[in-house]
Amino acid sequence: MYTLDDFNLKGKTILARFDMNSPLDPKTREPIDITRIEKSLPTLKELSEKGAKTVVLIHQGSDIEYHNYASTRPHAKIISQLLGKPVDYIDDVCGPAARDKIKALKNGQILMLENVRFMAEEMTLFETKLNLSPKEQAKTQTVCKLTPLADLYLCDAFAAAHRCQPTLVGMEEVLPSAMGRLFEKEVTSLNQLLQNPKKPCIFILGGAKIQDAFLMIDSILKNNIADLVLATGLVAQVMLLAKGISLGKPSEDLIKKKNLESYIDQSRAILNTFTKQIKLPIDFAYSVSGERKEVKVSSLPINYTLMDLGKNTISEYKSIIKDAKTVFFNGPAGVFEKTETALGTKSILAAISKSSAFSVLGGGDSITAVNKYKLTDGFSYISTGGGALVRFLSGEELPVIKALKRSAKKFLCDR
pTM for the whole thing? Predict the structure, then answer.
C-alpha cells in the first residue's frame, strides 16, 4: 500500500476519506467527543503544509440509518479551530455546487463536504442488500462525479475499513491511492500486536457489545497470539452461563433482551477447547440504591443485575497485567458511567497504564473510559477502530486494505 511519502502532493487535488464519526449532543447535534477528529489532524496538517488541495469526505451516523445522521458542518468548524486555519464547508456531496468549490480550491486549502451517508449509495443498507463489487461501486454517483476532479485518493478512515462502500473501496478503482498517517499507524501497531507479540500476551475482553469479542477470541487463541484472555462485562457473564452457573433473573433477562443467548453455546465450545487460556471472574459487584455491593460467583444467583467485577477479581486481573509484556483492552469491565460500578474498568485501565507492556486499547466505549480517567498517555497505542479493529485482529483482510493494495498494483506513484 502507498503512503503519503510516495507522492508529490503540491498542487494536487486529493479526495481524502476520514472517519470522524463522533458521539453527538442530542440537542445541539454537535460532537461531544472529538477523539477521532483529533486523530485525523496530522494527515490534514501535512496535506495542507505540502500544498495539496484537500477535499474531506466523512460520514456522521451509525448503522441505525438515516434518523441519526447529522451534518458535518460542526466537524469543519472544530478542525478549523484545532488547525488554526480556515476550513471551508459546503452542504453538498457531489452536486454542481460541490464540484465548483473543488475546482476553485487553491494550494493548501481544505474543503469539508457534507455527510457522505446522505447519499443513498453510502448507506449500510445499500452495502448489505446489494453487495456490489468495488468495480461496480466505482460506477456510483459520488465516485463518478468527484474522481474526475482529483489526482489522488487518500484513505485515513481505518475505523471504517471493514465497510465496503463507494467512498471507501470505489475510489481506488479509478485513482492512485494511499493510506493516511492514522491508517498507516493503525496497521503498523496492530500488526505488531498480531505478528510478534512479546509474551505473555493477554487480551482483556468485555463490554456490552460482546459480538466483537466473539469475532476474535477463537482466532487469537488458536493462532497463539494471546496466551490468556481475561473475560469481563457481559462476555464473562455469558461464559459463566455456558458453564452452567445461574446469574439470577435480572442479569439473565438483560442477556436475553440484548439477543446474546446464541453466544452461550459458542462460549461452551470455546471453553471446552481453551480451558486454561480463559480466565473468568470469581466475584461481581452490583448496585443497591446507589451503593456498591459485591457477591462471589459461588453465591450466585442473586436478584440484582451484575454491573462490575468484584474486588477479588480486580486484584487477580491486576496481578496478571503486571507480569504481561503485551496487553490488549477492548470493552469496559462494567457500567463505568455509574460511580459505584466504575471500579473494575478504572482499576484495570490504571494497571495497564502503569505497566511497561506494549499496550493497545480499542473500541468506542473503551476510548470514552480511558479519556474519562485521563489515562491515555499510559497506553502504547489507542486505536480509533471498533468493528474494523476486531475484524483485523481476527485475521480478516479488510475491504479497504484490499482496495488500497489493488490500487497500488494498478497505478504507479508519481515519484
Answer: 0.84
